[in-house]
Amino acid sequence: MEKVTLDLIVNLMEQLKAKDKRITEVEQMLNSKERELQQMVNKRLDVLEKQNSQQMNNIDKRVDTIITKNMKQVTDIQKKLFDKKFEELRLEAQYKHNVNHWVNTCCEWADYVKVSDTESYAPTEFDILYLEFSEWSEIQECKKPPRNILMELFNEIQSASKYGLELGKSKRDKCKNGTHCEPLYNISVV
To answer: Where are the domains of the chain?
Structure first.
């Protein structure tokens, strides 16, 4: 075994100090590199975050534009539907007014026509009233309702009268006001 001498201990101590110093330098270098790497990562994350933020802002703007455009389209559609419904209601009221005016000024109520001891019918067919009202509408220069709406209006007027409205499905039902397809009315043109 080698003799441990003071020189040997001093030499080993210096070697240990040198190694410690070298380890410390390496640790410092690693810490420095770690900090540099962390700074690079942080810078890259900042850049990515800014890009992401810009992209999100662009997406938000596009979404806002699309929503605004769609809301305008929805509003336009709602306005058109409202205008259409308003026009339908206005026409319906005008039709009703014109038909009531015509019935009150150009027609009178007529009793049922007795066909037998058990059967009696309203005297006027819808087609006759339709033709007479159409002619009157032309002379008055007012818009004539479609045939089905005019029939509904005559049905309302007949139903509200003292005669009421009794319609059958077929002629075999022998209802006083005929059938749904071929109604008869107690309204007579003067």
So the answer is: 108-189
